[in-house]
Design a protein that fits this description.
15 helices; two-stranded antiparallel ribbon; alpha+beta; elongated; seven-stranded mixed beta sheet
């Protein structure tokens, strides 16, 4: 059974297990003081309403004022072997972060008499975490996250009905910061699902033509001019998408080809993090998702990675995980998506990852880049045209008297 990557999202600060704060804005504190409110807040935390899921949330610090860190959601197992695999995975992933305590929730399943679903898994996971010095503060169950659904704790000490998930303080906060909450994981991942023509010969031909044009534009003294023009094209396209206007297929493929140049891609990384005051994060995120749906493999790895990073900047969630999975599937040797996937799997702090994105974008935009040698650029893009799946334009930082800025 393939156990999915954890889906880090809004981390929270915790005050007696009840206070959440978005990592990017630590002054914004969302207070959760009841188990049913915690369960009802899961859609806001994960970006969608989890179903048939195991949720594990790590907590750090003293009981009187804990900070909640890494959180993960995984599909519930369908057999005992899958349960053991999931048990090992969740324990190892959480123990690596060394939290002081954990909250566990199961969403899905039906009552079997008086026994809650997946009791065996909860008991074994609690024992494993306790063996690693991690106290389980609460283990909760609900059949679904919806208004009026019944919930219970695995200790049998409390139960009740869930409030409206859209009326929680956590939901209000995610709306305030502009993060969308989807009805289901399927709805969330549809944002990066390939469109019907993505794998068509016509789309492949359009992208190959765009790649060939990129070769021609990056000759001699036109190299840096091409980079600047590509960035201006991406900025204009963000505004076009923001206005709800369509973009021609040839133009979409031209932007996918432009993103193969790491200088273009690295500057574009910062669009969703506010590094470019001519582009809004929402418009950039929408453009990257559009390109991810439209681009063929393996080149889709470029916009898919930008989509994942944009989702990360908005708090993570299913779109981030689905986008990075699409990038890795399309091009397993793609370095940036590999780095992002490794950081996600290691449950690296979101702010650390966001800082890395900002650093890459700002340093590339501000750098005095020696002019890329035209033969290297042409050969690298031409290799993609010929079908060499893992070719990428190299960062050319060689000594050259003719330099220019990308700003």
């Amino acid at each position: 059974m393939r156990v999915p990557l954890p889906e880090p999202r809004l981390t929270f600060s915790n005050e007696t297990e009840n206070v959440m704060t978005q990592e990017a804005t630590p002054q914004a504190v969302v207070r959760i003081n009841r188990p049913e409110t915690l369960l009802a807040s899961l859609p806001a935390l994960f970006g969608f309403a989890p179903s048939e899921s195991l949720v594990v949330i790590g907590m750090h610090g003293e009981p009187a004022r804990r900070r909640v860190g890494a959180s993960m959601r995984c599909d519930l197992p369908t057999d005992r072997q899958g349960a053991w695999e999931l048990l090992r995975y969740t324990h190892d992933a959480l123990a690596a972060r060394r939290p002081d305590a954990a909250l566990i929730a199961v969403v899905g399943g039906d009552l079997e008499g008086t026994e809650l679903p997946h009791t065996w898994l909860i008991d074994k996971l609690g024992e494993a975490l306790a063996g690693s010095g991690i106290d389980v503060s609460a283990s909760l169950w609900a059949p679904a996250i919806r208004p009026g659904a019944g919930w219970s704790c695995y200790d049998g000490c409390c139960a009740g009905l869930l409030p409206d998930p859209t009326a929680t303080e956590a939901a209000a906060h995610t709306a305030l910061i502009g993060r969308r909450t989807y009805l289901s994981r399927e709805d969330a991942t549809a944002a990066v699902t390939p469109d019907a023509a993505a794998a068509s010969p016509a789309r492949r031909q359009a992208l190959d033509a765009a790649l060939a044009a990129a070769v021609a534009r990056r000759t001699g003294h036109g190299d840096l001019r091409a980079v600047r023009e590509d960035l201006d094209t991406l900025r204009a396209a963000c505004a076009t998408v923001g206005r709800g206007e369509p973009i021609a297929e040839a133009d979409l493929m031209g932007m996918v080809a432009a993103l193969i140049d790491p200088r273009v891609r690295d500057v574009a990384l910062g669009f969703a993090e506010g590094c470019d005051d001519t582009v809004t994060a929402e418009d950039a995120t929408a453009l990257w998702a559009l390109l991810t749906r439209a681009a063929p493999a393996p080149e889709v790895a470029e916009p898919a990675t930008l989509t994942a990073c944009a989702a990360l900047c908005a708090g993570g969630g299913a779109v981030m995980t689905a986008a990075i999975d699409r990038a890795r599937t399309a091009d397993p040797e793609h370095r940036l998506s590999g780095l992002v996937a490794t950081m996600i799997a290691a449950s690296m702090e979101q702010q650390t990852m966001r800082d890395m994105i900002v650093k890459a974008a700002t340093q590339t935009a501000a750098a005095d880049w020696p002019r890329a040698r035209a033969t290297e650029v042409r050969d690298a893009i031409a290799a993609v045209v010929r079908g060499h799946r893992h070719a990428r334009i190299a960062h050319a930082a060689r000594t050259d008297p003719d330099t220019g800025r990308l700003a």
